[in-house]
Amino acid sequence: MNKKNLKVLGITGGVGAGKSTILDYIQKMYHARVIQADLVGHMVQEPGSPCYYRIVETFGTGILNGDRTIARGKLAAAVFDDYEKLQKLNRIVHPAVKEYIISEIASERERGQVPFVVIEAALLLEDHYDAICDEIWYVYADEKTRTERLMRTRGYSEEKARRIMSNQMKESGYRARCEFVIDNSGNIVENTYDQIDKGLIEHGFL
Protein backbone atom coordinates (compact mmCIF):
# COMPACT_ATOMS: atom_id res chain seq x y z
CA MET A 1 0.00 0.00 0.00
CA ASN A 2 1.46 3.34 -1.05
CA LYS A 3 1.31 5.64 1.97
CA LYS A 4 1.62 8.83 -0.03
CA ASN A 5 -1.30 7.92 -2.31
CA LEU A 6 -3.81 7.35 0.50
CA LYS A 7 -7.01 8.91 -0.84
CA VAL A 8 -9.59 10.80 1.17
CA LEU A 9 -13.31 10.48 0.39
CA GLY A 10 -15.81 13.01 1.70
CA ILE A 11 -19.39 11.88 2.31
CA THR A 12 -22.17 14.43 2.73
CA GLY A 13 -25.90 14.82 2.30
CA GLY A 14 -28.99 16.13 4.02
CA VAL A 15 -30.36 14.94 7.33
CA GLY A 16 -32.23 11.64 6.98
CA ALA A 17 -30.44 10.66 3.76
CA GLY A 18 -28.95 7.60 5.45
CA LYS A 19 -25.27 8.52 5.53
CA SER A 20 -24.64 6.15 8.45
CA THR A 21 -25.72 3.21 6.26
CA ILE A 22 -23.06 4.12 3.71
CA LEU A 23 -20.38 4.64 6.36
CA ASP A 24 -21.10 1.34 8.11
CA TYR A 25 -20.90 -0.57 4.84
CA ILE A 26 -17.64 1.05 3.72
CA GLN A 27 -16.05 0.46 7.10
CA LYS A 28 -17.10 -3.18 7.39
CA MET A 29 -16.62 -4.18 3.76
CA TYR A 30 -13.45 -2.25 2.91
CA HIS A 31 -11.92 -1.57 6.35
CA ALA A 32 -11.53 2.12 5.57
CA ARG A 33 -10.92 4.65 8.35
CA VAL A 34 -14.15 6.54 8.92
CA ILE A 35 -14.06 9.91 10.67
CA GLN A 36 -17.37 11.60 11.54
CA ALA A 37 -17.07 15.33 12.10
CA ASP A 38 -20.01 15.38 14.50
CA LEU A 39 -18.34 12.86 16.83
CA VAL A 40 -15.04 14.74 16.60
CA GLY A 41 -16.97 17.88 17.52
CA HIS A 42 -18.11 16.25 20.75
CA MET A 43 -14.60 15.01 21.50
CA VAL A 44 -12.91 18.40 21.11
CA GLN A 45 -15.37 19.86 23.63
CA GLU A 46 -14.33 17.53 26.44
CA PRO A 47 -13.01 19.11 29.66
CA GLY A 48 -9.35 20.07 29.46
CA SER A 49 -9.37 20.85 25.75
CA PRO A 50 -8.76 24.38 24.41
CA CYS A 51 -12.26 24.33 22.88
CA TYR A 52 -13.82 23.52 26.22
CA TYR A 53 -12.30 26.53 27.94
CA ARG A 54 -13.15 28.89 25.09
CA ILE A 55 -16.78 27.70 25.01
CA VAL A 56 -17.20 28.10 28.78
CA GLU A 57 -15.56 31.52 28.63
CA THR A 58 -17.88 32.57 25.81
CA PHE A 59 -21.18 31.10 27.01
CA GLY A 60 -20.74 30.90 30.78
CA THR A 61 -20.81 28.10 33.36
CA GLY A 62 -24.59 27.81 32.99
CA ILE A 63 -24.03 25.42 30.06
CA LEU A 64 -22.22 22.87 32.26
CA ASN A 65 -23.45 19.67 33.84
CA GLY A 66 -22.78 18.92 37.50
CA ASP A 67 -19.59 17.07 36.54
CA ARG A 68 -18.35 20.17 34.64
CA THR A 69 -18.84 18.58 31.22
CA ILE A 70 -20.64 20.65 28.61
CA ALA A 71 -24.38 19.95 28.52
CA ARG A 72 -25.01 19.79 24.79
CA GLY A 73 -28.71 20.53 25.25
CA LYS A 74 -27.96 23.67 27.26
CA LEU A 75 -25.35 24.80 24.74
CA ALA A 76 -27.77 24.20 21.88
CA ALA A 77 -30.44 26.23 23.71
CA ALA A 78 -27.94 29.05 24.24
CA VAL A 79 -27.36 29.45 20.49
CA PHE A 80 -30.86 28.55 19.29
CA ASP A 81 -32.33 31.31 17.14
CA ASP A 82 -29.27 33.51 17.78
CA TYR A 83 -27.15 33.65 14.64
CA GLU A 84 -24.34 35.63 16.25
CA LYS A 85 -23.94 33.17 19.12
CA LEU A 86 -24.08 30.22 16.73
CA GLN A 87 -21.34 31.78 14.62
CA LYS A 88 -19.22 32.30 17.73
CA LEU A 89 -19.62 28.62 18.63
CA ASN A 90 -18.81 27.51 15.10
CA ARG A 91 -15.67 29.66 15.03
CA ILE A 92 -14.47 27.83 18.14
CA VAL A 93 -15.42 24.26 17.26
CA HIS A 94 -15.10 23.93 13.47
CA PRO A 95 -11.39 24.82 13.17
CA ALA A 96 -10.56 22.39 15.99
CA VAL A 97 -12.51 19.62 14.28
CA LYS A 98 -10.77 20.21 10.97
CA GLU A 99 -7.35 20.34 12.64
CA TYR A 100 -8.02 16.98 14.31
CA ILE A 101 -9.20 15.39 11.06
CA ILE A 102 -6.18 16.64 9.10
CA SER A 103 -3.93 15.24 11.84
CA GLU A 104 -5.68 11.85 11.69
CA ILE A 105 -5.34 11.68 7.91
CA ALA A 106 -1.61 12.34 8.26
CA SER A 107 -1.38 9.58 10.89
CA GLU A 108 -3.22 7.08 8.69
CA ARG A 109 -1.01 8.03 5.76
CA GLU A 110 2.07 7.34 7.88
CA ARG A 111 0.75 4.02 9.23
CA GLY A 112 -0.31 2.84 5.79
CA GLN A 113 -2.79 0.28 7.14
CA VAL A 114 -6.09 1.39 5.60
CA PRO A 115 -7.08 1.51 1.89
CA PHE A 116 -8.54 5.02 2.14
CA VAL A 117 -10.01 7.50 4.63
CA VAL A 118 -13.66 8.61 4.72
CA ILE A 119 -14.77 11.91 6.24
CA GLU A 120 -18.46 12.47 6.92
CA ALA A 121 -19.99 15.82 7.77
CA ALA A 122 -23.32 17.48 7.07
CA LEU A 123 -21.46 20.75 6.36
CA LEU A 124 -18.61 19.18 4.43
CA LEU A 125 -18.98 21.60 1.52
CA GLU A 126 -19.83 24.66 3.60
CA ASP A 127 -16.75 24.09 5.78
CA HIS A 128 -14.54 23.65 2.68
CA TYR A 129 -13.43 20.08 3.31
CA ASP A 130 -13.15 19.76 -0.45
CA ALA A 131 -9.65 21.20 0.05
CA ILE A 132 -8.56 18.04 1.89
CA CYS A 133 -10.71 15.45 0.08
CA ASP A 134 -9.86 13.82 -3.24
CA GLU A 135 -13.59 13.57 -3.96
CA ILE A 136 -16.87 14.36 -2.26
CA TRP A 137 -19.88 12.08 -2.70
CA TYR A 138 -23.48 13.09 -2.14
CA VAL A 139 -25.89 10.71 -0.43
CA TYR A 140 -29.31 11.48 -1.88
CA ALA A 141 -32.77 10.49 -0.69
CA ASP A 142 -36.05 12.13 -1.66
CA GLU A 143 -37.75 14.40 0.86
CA LYS A 144 -40.61 12.02 1.58
CA THR A 145 -38.20 9.21 2.45
CA ARG A 146 -36.04 11.49 4.59
CA THR A 147 -39.07 12.84 6.45
CA GLU A 148 -40.36 9.34 7.19
CA ARG A 149 -36.91 8.22 8.40
CA LEU A 150 -36.56 11.17 10.76
CA MET A 151 -40.05 10.61 12.16
CA ARG A 152 -39.34 6.89 12.64
CA THR A 153 -35.75 6.95 13.92
CA ARG A 154 -35.57 10.26 15.80
CA GLY A 155 -39.16 10.78 16.79
CA TYR A 156 -39.40 14.10 14.95
CA SER A 157 -42.74 15.54 13.97
CA GLU A 158 -43.26 15.99 10.23
CA GLU A 159 -43.09 19.75 10.76
CA LYS A 160 -39.76 19.57 12.59
CA ALA A 161 -38.25 17.26 9.98
CA ARG A 162 -39.25 19.54 7.12
CA ARG A 163 -38.06 22.64 8.96
CA ILE A 164 -34.60 21.15 9.49
CA MET A 165 -34.39 20.01 5.88
CA SER A 166 -35.41 23.46 4.62
CA ASN A 167 -32.39 24.98 6.37
CA GLN A 168 -29.90 22.69 4.65
CA MET A 169 -28.25 22.93 1.26
CA LYS A 170 -30.56 22.20 -1.66
CA GLU A 171 -30.17 19.07 -3.78
CA SER A 172 -28.95 21.10 -6.76
CA GLY A 173 -26.15 22.56 -4.64
CA TYR A 174 -24.92 19.14 -3.59
CA ARG A 175 -25.10 17.72 -7.11
CA ALA A 176 -23.20 20.66 -8.59
CA ARG A 177 -20.26 20.22 -6.22
CA CYS A 178 -20.00 16.45 -5.72
CA GLU A 179 -18.26 13.94 -7.98
CA PHE A 180 -20.62 11.01 -7.35
CA VAL A 181 -24.21 10.56 -6.17
CA ILE A 182 -25.48 7.58 -4.18
CA ASP A 183 -29.27 7.25 -4.37
CA ASN A 184 -30.31 5.92 -0.97
CA SER A 185 -34.06 6.46 -1.37
CA GLY A 186 -35.06 2.83 -1.73
CA ASN A 187 -35.79 0.14 0.83
CA ILE A 188 -33.49 -2.43 -0.78
CA VAL A 189 -30.16 -1.69 0.86
CA GLU A 190 -28.28 -3.97 -1.53
CA ASN A 191 -28.99 -1.47 -4.31
CA THR A 192 -27.19 1.19 -2.27
CA TYR A 193 -24.28 -1.18 -1.63
CA ASP A 194 -23.97 -1.89 -5.36
CA GLN A 195 -23.68 1.84 -6.08
CA ILE A 196 -20.94 2.20 -3.44
CA ASP A 197 -18.97 -0.76 -4.84
CA LYS A 198 -19.20 0.60 -8.37
CA GLY A 199 -18.25 4.13 -7.32
CA LEU A 200 -15.20 3.06 -5.30
CA ILE A 201 -13.88 1.01 -8.19
CA GLU A 202 -14.61 3.52 -10.96
CA HIS A 203 -13.24 6.46 -8.97
CA GLY A 204 -9.98 4.78 -8.04
CA PHE A 205 -10.40 4.24 -4.31
CA LEU A 206 -9.73 0.50 -4.58
In oligomeric terms, what are we looking at?
single chain
Number of domains: 2
Number of helices: 9
- CATH 4th-level superfamily of the largest domain: P-loop containing nucleotide triphosphate hydrolases
CATH class of the largest domain: Alpha Beta
Strand content: 5-15%
Write down the secondary-structure element order. EHEHHHHEEHHHEH
Helix content: 40-55%
Poorly predicted spans: none
DSSP strand tally: 5
Q: Structural class per helix/strand content?
A: alpha/beta
Structural summary, described in words:
With 206 residues, the chain is α/β, with parallel strands linked by helices. It has 2 domains: 1-32 and 116-200, Rossmann fold (3-Layer(aba) Sandwich); 42-113, P-loop containing nucleotide triphosphate hydrolases (Rossmann fold). It is built from 9 helices and 5 strands; from the N terminus they run E-H-E-H-H-H-H-E-E-H-H-H-E-H. The chain has helices spanning 19-30, 37-43, 50-59, 72-79, 83-111, 143-153, 158-166, 171-177, 189-202, and strands spanning 7-12, 33-36, 116-120, 135-140, 180-183. The protein has a 5-stranded parallel beta sheet with strand order 2-3-1-4-5, sandwiched between helices. The longest helix has 29 residues, at 83-111.
